[in-house]
User: Which sequence fits this backbone?
């Protein structure tokens, strides 16, 4: 099954694993003694782990689209771990949290509370179809975990089909369905029954579909569903954050195949839900409704850890099991933050803005970057933007561009080794966007020597 073309670009380079020499050069030139001291203390007390500790830099502030480091340098943050649909520290969210903290700050399990019920109702009111049942968790990974448990309970099956190269969290169940080499490699035995299939990505397609997806990857999912015969769920990110956008009928085919073979469709919209793509739920672009959708990240307003699932009414079938049972599953302060966040998204019309400003900014970016031969492609899905760097030393160039941007005051993430990924807050000003793209142009010029 895994006959991947060896000539395809390797997927084994995770953008967060910094090429160490560029990182060291950035730190040597940029990080002063006070920051160095804090970084050393951090490295001395936290467990070291890839992509996290030791840290790159230390922050002392985050407001709107900006983060500020310990030495007062400000960066437009177009990564923000995808929590900042409404920017950092939105005053309405802060006010709602403060009010909640002054009133009632924690709710023990077995009890409910007003903010938790109102947030669940709000999400249900925004969801199409009969996605009417909600469960919150303190993080995206645990929300994926309850989606998997619910699929087992509802179908009496345990197998899953998920995608190579996908990310669904770092716990053992999440990496079992995840497809990133960096997380799975040397992890030991993972969950049984986790089948993996190729994602709809023409640039890495083992079916050699070329530049246009021929849906062979969708047909293959149906093939596996049929041959296994007892798959509980297909689990996938609706659109991989990079962004690589499946063809319009891709999800309709998968939806139909799941229905035919009795499997649930679970869509992970943890980083891209809540408006980023120009629809509140990304799956709305594809004219389907999943059985379970998973939200997280910005759900807590970029302040509280909060995630959750919305499931179809018919999936309310596990009353005797503890699907989640998390201590903070109805945390009133987190839920107050979530409610205020959605109110901001609605009142500031940020879903519509993601669509219109995303379309406008991608045109601007394409025009600005057209003269640069290092830039292979600029793509967008709402306000999720990707600039793919090409050429023989693309991974190195992408990393150098990232640090050149950081020196100028623009922070973002490199994905799949060569894609500069930008997720600006949906309420960013046009002048901040202009500043960011000017910094990007300067960085690309610097790295290409022109
Ligand atoms: C697509 C996707 N799923 C799941 C997760 C896990 O969420 P969390 O880090 O909140 O556990 C992430 C986090 O980056 C993600 O991007």
Assistant:
């Amino acid at each position: 099954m895994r006959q991947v073309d060896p000539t395809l670009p390797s997927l084994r380079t995770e953008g967060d694993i910094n090429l160490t020499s560029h990182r060291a050069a950035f730190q040597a030139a940029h990080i002063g003694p006070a920051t160095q001291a804090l970084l050393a203390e951090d490295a001395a007390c936290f467990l070291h782990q890839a992509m996290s500790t030791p840290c790159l830099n230390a922050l002392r502030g985050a407001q709107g689209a900006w983060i500020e480091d310990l030495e007062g340098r400000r960066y437009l943050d177009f990564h923000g771990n995808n929590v900042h649909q409404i920017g950092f520290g939105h005053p309405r969210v802060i006010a709602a949290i403060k009010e909640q903290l002054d009133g009632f700050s924690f709710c023990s399990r077995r009890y409910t509370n007003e903010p938790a019920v109102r947030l669940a109702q709000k999400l249900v009111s925004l969801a199409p179809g009969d996605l009417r049942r909600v469960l919150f968790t303190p993080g995206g990974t645990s929300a994926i975990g309850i989606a998997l448990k619910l699929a087992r309970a509802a179908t009496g099956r345990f197998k899953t089909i998920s995608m190579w190269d996908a990310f669904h969290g770092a716990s053992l169940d999440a990496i079992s369905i995840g497809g990133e080499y960096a997380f799975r490699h040397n992890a030991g035995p993972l969950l049984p029954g986790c089948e993996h299939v190729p994602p709809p990505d023409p640039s890495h397609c083992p079916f050699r579909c070329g530049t246009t997806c021929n849906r062979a990857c969708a047909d293959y999912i149906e093939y596996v569903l049929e041959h296994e015969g007892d798959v509980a769920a297909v689990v996938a990110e609706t659109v991989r954050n990079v962004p690589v956008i499946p063809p319009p009928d891709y999800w309709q085919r998968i939806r139909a195949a799941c229905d035919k073979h009795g499997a649930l469709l679970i869509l992970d919209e943890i980083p891209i839900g809540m408006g980023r793509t120009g629809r509140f739920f990304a799956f709305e672009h594809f004219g389907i409704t999943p059985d379970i959708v998973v939200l997280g990240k910005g759900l807590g307003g970029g302040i509280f850890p909060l995630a959750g699932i919305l499931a179809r009414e018919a999936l309310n079938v596990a009353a005797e099991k503890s699907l989640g049972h998390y201590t903070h599953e109805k945390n009133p302060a987190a839920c107050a933050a979530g409610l205020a966040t959605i109110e901001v998204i609605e009142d500031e019309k940020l879903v519509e803005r993601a669509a219109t400003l995303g379309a406008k900014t991608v045109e601007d970016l394409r025009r600005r970057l057209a003269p640069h031969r290092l830039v292979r492609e600029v793509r967008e899905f709402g306000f999720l933007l990707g600039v793919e760097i090409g050429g023989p030393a693309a991974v190195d160039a992408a990393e150098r561009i990232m640090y050149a941007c950081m020196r100028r005051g623009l922070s973002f993430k490199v994905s799949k080794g060569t894609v500069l990924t930008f997720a600006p807050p949906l309420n960013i000003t046009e002048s901040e966007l202009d500043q960011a793209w000017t910094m990007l142009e300067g960085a690309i010029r610097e790295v290409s020597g022109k």
Observations:
- Confidence is low (pLDDT under 50) at residues 1-18.
- The CA atoms of residues 408 and 439 lie 6 Å apart.
- DSSP finds 13 helices and 15 strands in the chain.
